[in-house]
Specification:
By secondary structure, this protein is of the alpha/beta class. The chain folds into two domains: 211 residues, Rossmann fold (3-Layer(aba) Sandwich), CATH 3.40.50.10260; 254 residues, UDP-N-acetylmuramoyl-L-alanine:D-glutamate ligase. The chain has an eleven-stranded mixed sheet with strand order 1-9-18-17-16-15-14-13-10-11-12, with helices on both faces. Helix 9 crosses helix 10. The structure holds ligand NPW and potassium ion (K). GO terms for molecular function: ADP-dependent NAD(P)H-hydrate dehydratase activity; ATP binding; metal ion binding; NAD(P)HX epimerase activity.
Length: 480
């Protein structure tokens, strides 16, 4: 099942719908127990709970309450727990009473600030959760800045200073090794995944929000991906023929990488159109390659743009392709052309997938991409009535209805020249196989990221190495 990511308001809506469970403190008891369990498991993994040392940083709201109740539970298990209260007058009263009663120690405040003792195994961030706004304030920032670098940080609900709805990483903010959240993941857990570390979702018995607001963010799990497999009645045509328009005789790299990715991604046929036809065939003899669009033959989808140039001839080719009623993936140079001629895609009713990186996105919209990538990508998709795949460590694929599929690449090794050409080839093949632009883009991003991890194993890679790892990566997504 795809994972859904909620806004802070949607979480509050779901909590309110839990009625008594919220009012009588059951939700907080379950939440704090979940935090304590995760911290205890981490301590047990590294030698046990008894006699270990944990710090908790406690803010003014219920996020601090969670941390205090969790601290109380850990203290009862024999852990020495030290708390810094950032707003002593506002600290959750019942949580603080439980913490003191269990033997937790509150660090005295001197000169308006307090620091945790040295030598802690784990520090729990209970500064703010879904009620937080903006960066860490100075007192909290000083506590985290003073921690030894090897200290494990467990965030309650989210790393404080990172925006719950946009994932904007304010400066300063907390970087967590583990984040424990409750009921449903929040948008931040995908949009700022590298800042959250490992995510633990604790069931506290809350339902779903009464309605979702756009953009509705979700992610595919590995199990949701069902890579195209030829059936007994299939031939090379029925699985989808993808046409690739990329590169040139002078710069054949993009042509070879995009065509090679298309050949590898599905067993349907790949056609190539452009002046690098001889180079493409010398690398991939199975590609039917011709210099001119008029000779191309039939395809079920086009991938157009990488390294094709932006001159009048390129524009004429792009116009011809976009005038068809076939699915088209528009990448790289074709995006530059579309930025100056939006009318080329504006009237399209056939599936259209634009695949910009941040710079190309700014060219398309006329404004730099801000911190709220999610709203920006969903806005462009709705305004132009197309699907937009925004590249990055977290790839976002927005369709015009306000649904956005996100994918965390898990590493940034794919940030290398030519990797985008490979992605364009994969996604084009999936379009030709009949998938929607959102599914094609999101699955392509996931398998591309997996290929980068397999290829890299901790060392830098180039796009050819990534392409070589594509087949083993796809194997992980073939079912049955
Ligand atoms: N509701 C439930 O059923 C359940 C809720 N649960 C938990 O409650 C959390 C939500 O609690 P919440 O609503 O009290 O808000 P919360 O995130 O603690 O922060 C608000 C406080 O922080 C302050 N503040 C704001 N920005 C700040 C900053 N940058 N730096 C420093 N301080 C800042 C602001 O105070 P201010 O100083 O601005 O007056 C305000 O008082 C949720 O994330 C989950 O952990 C769980 O127990 C499950 C059940
Ligand atoms: K937090």
């Amino acid at each position: 099942m795809p994972m859904q990511y909620l806004t802070a308001d949607e979480v509050r809506d779901a909590e309110r719908a839990s009625g008594d469970l919220l009012a009588n403190g059951t939700l907080m008891r379950r939440a704090s127990h979940g935090v304590a369990r995760v911290v205890a498991a981490e301590l047990n993994r590294t030698g046990g709970c008894y006699g270990r040392r944990v710090g908790i940083v406690v803010g003014a709201g219920d996020n601090g309450g969670d941390a205090l109740f969790a601290g109380a539970e850990l203290a009862r298990r024999g852990v020495a727990v030290h708390a810094v209260l950032l707003a002593p007058d506002k600290a959750h009263p019942a949580g603080l009473a439980a913490f003191r009663a269990a033997g937790g120690r509150v660090v005295p405040t001197t000169g308006g600030g307090a620091a945790l003792p040295a030598g802690l195994d784990i520090v729990v961030d209970g500064v703010v959760g879904i009620g937080g706004k903006g960066p860490l304030r100075p007192a909290a920032a000083a506590v985290f800045a003073a921690l030894a670098p090897e200290t494990t940080v467990v965030a309650v609900d989210l790393p404080s200073g990172v925006d719950c709805d946009t994932g904007e990483v304010h400066d300063p903010s907390v970087r967590a090794d583990i984040t424990v959240t409750f009921g449903h993941p929040r948008r931040v857990h995908l949009l700022a995944a590298p800042r959250c570390g490992r995510l633990a979702v604790v069931d506290i018995g809350i339902g779903k929000p009464s309605e979702r607001v756009a953009p509705r963010l979700f992610s595919f799990s590995d199990e949701d991906i069902d890579w195209p497999v030829p059936g007994p009645a299939d031939d090379k045509y029925t699985q989808g023929v993808v046409g690739v328009i990329a590169g040139s005789h002078r710069y054949p790299g993009a042509a070879i990488l995009a065509s090679g990715a298309a050949v590898t991604a599905t067993s349907g046929m790949t056609r190539y159109v452009g002046s690098a036809h001889a180079e493409v065939v010398s690398h991939f003899p199975e590609v039917v390659a011709v210099p001119d669009l008029a000779e191309a033959g039939r395809v079920q989808a086009w991938t157009v743009g990488p390294g094709m140039g932006t001159d009048d001839a390129a524009e004429a080719t792009l116009r011809t392709v976009l005038d068809t009623d076939l699915p088209v993936l528009v990448d790289a140079d074709a995006l530059t052309i579309v930025a100056r001629r939006p009318e080329l895609v504006a009237g399209r009713t056939a599936p259209t997938l634009l695949t910009p990186h941040a710079g190309e996105f700014a060219r398309l919209t006329g404004t730099a991409l801000g911190a709220d990538r999610l709203s920006a990508v969903a806005g462009l998709a709705a305004e132009w009535n197309v699907t937009v795949l925004l590249k990055g460590r977290i790839t976002l694929v927005a369709d015009p209805t306000g649904s956005v599929a996100g994918n965390d690449a898990g590493s940034s090794w794919a940030a290398t020249a030519g990797a985008g050409d490979v992605l364009a080839g994969i996604a084009g093949s999936l379009l030709a196989a009949g998938h929607t632009p959102q599914t094609a883009g999101a699955w392509a991003a996931r398998v591309h990221a997996r290929a980068a991890l397999l290829a890299s194993r901790g060392a830098p890679i180039g796009a050819s190495t990534l392409l070589a790892a594509l087949r083993p990566a796809i194997r992980e997504f073939v079912r049955g």
